Known about the structure:
By secondary structure, the protein is of the alpha/beta class. The protein contains five helices and five strands, in the order βαββαβααβα. Strands 2-1-3-4-5 form a five-stranded parallel beta sheet, with helices on both faces. The protein is elongated, with a radius of gyration of 18 Å.
Amino acid sequence: MTTEPQIRKLKVAWFSFSCCEDNVIVFSELLNDHWLEWKKLIEITNARVLRTKNVMEDFDIAFIEGAIASPKHVEKLTEVRKLANKLVAVGACACTGMPSAQRNYFNVEQKANIQPLVDKFGSLPKVLKVSEVVKVDAEVPGCPMDPSDFVTKATALILARRAELAKEIGISA
Ligand code: SF4
């Protein structure tokens, strides 16, 4: 007896950069409501707040919250982009830089006051939104993100990726 090939579960990751991490709390709340249906389709392979063991390997979808404030952030985000089939900026900090990027708009005196801290922590001269560093495939704006917009966009990405994988193995999604 031969078994029909199955679409594998999508590998999903969540990364937090410079922010208050409110979006991942909203995401955790959404898992309470949607995990039973989502766990048939996805596995979370990297999410610091949800797992103790995280892997840096190919991701089908990587969600990014927070602004990019240091060279280490740039390096990590660039690595994630290389591994991710789709990369989604989540929340205002990731989509626009603000409110985490408030220091970009400080006056000369304020900038002089904080310069010792910028130097001490090796921060970038200017805080960046995610799309200033890597290509972004979708954005879920809001501070924090709008849960229903997240579910709509995440579901569309999951279904599109499943359709691609189904085509690769010659079955219908
Ligand atoms: S977008 Fe708002 S809620 Fe989300 S991490 Fe930034 S400051 Fe926090």
